Here is the input.
Amino acid sequence: MPAPNSAVALPPATESWRVTCTPLFVLFAAYTFMILTYRAKGATVVMVLALVFLVFQRAALRVPAFVLLFVAWISWAAIGYALNPSADAVLWDSLVEHAKLALIILVAVNAVRTPTQMRYCLAFVVVSFILFPARSTLQNYVTGYTVFGRAVGPFIYANSNDLAAISLLILGPAFALWASERPRGMLRWIGLSAAAVLIVVIILTQSRGGFLGLAVVVVPSAVGLARRRPRTVFALAAVLAAGLFAAPASFWQRMEGLSKATSAETVGEMDAEGSAKQRFAVLETATRIIADHPVLGVGLGGYARANAEYSPALGPRDTHNTYVNVAAETGIPGLLIFLVLVGNVLWSARDTRPGGGKRRGGARDPDRERLHWLSSALAGYFVAGLFGSYARLAVTYIFISLVWAASRAAKAQLSIAPSTYPTTAPHQPASGSAAHPAMMGSIAR
Here is the structure.
């Protein structure tokens, strides 16, 4: 008897432990844990070991188009550095750090190849973030340690906007576990519980960018769920309602301040602490910098110094805007390459979204469910990028890589004829393994 439309194809169960927990996968997971939680040192050593195993792996090397675009972006920045008369050690160090990011991306897209690896990776990321940064943030908030009433966490998460943006990224894996796992499976409940915690964290940060990003994640997904799985909309609404219920009065005041952003005369009224007014002044300075350096920019890592030179009263400041920062440091061509890079990955996820294309019989496709939530979270993150500079963060490219890997896994499953793929049986071993032709290739699009 065929499975009902509400059935979920079971996650892969035939992949061996050795196939799933490869040295490259374990090292990538360890590196991700280190940069997300800051609870362990040695990230550089771990990545070097990962590169060694990458060289000696049996599977063909995967080099997606977005990796080539990232290399093109760094190459353009290198040209700018070579032609920059004021280039110094700061610009060189930033260029080297971005070159290292290219290697990290290469490891990421090759470490996570199978549906089982994707499931384990997402669960590990969610649990790690909840146990450390999210838990510390909630403890700080309960004990009264805040900044202007806004929740803050440890290390990089001391910046409320960065905390909200990265929480948005983790929200994708949390919802992906909830949407793709067995109805009564432990991972499903972990995902739903983590999503509730993350929404509370995002709201407590009172980040305008975080709230807008959250809307990008939740609203379109709710519309899609209403068409595909009406009952699950209630669970999503309950999780969101729990987060909004925890919102303090100051949260609604800050969100109301968004209406003041439509005019230069009223932008200073957006918040009591004056951060919006200062951001507007920085953006005005950035506009002048881009106008003076439209082609090559001022160099990767050079914006803070340029801001101080153009506006001594402001001093060395960040743009607090990913796209303005990229344009100021690498010029308009650099911004275009960066946008194409991000668009390439999000577009690759579009053809395999839930509800479109082929289906495995009448079952929901767990691979495409994961892909949907990961790509939605990435889109929300880049909306939050209007309020923060995230082009230099390793976590940005790790999640871009995960979206690409999820897209490849989903497309690999689509290549299997529905008639030969039972909706209630485990994934075929070859479908998500490194041996599957759709998962291989020296240059992957």
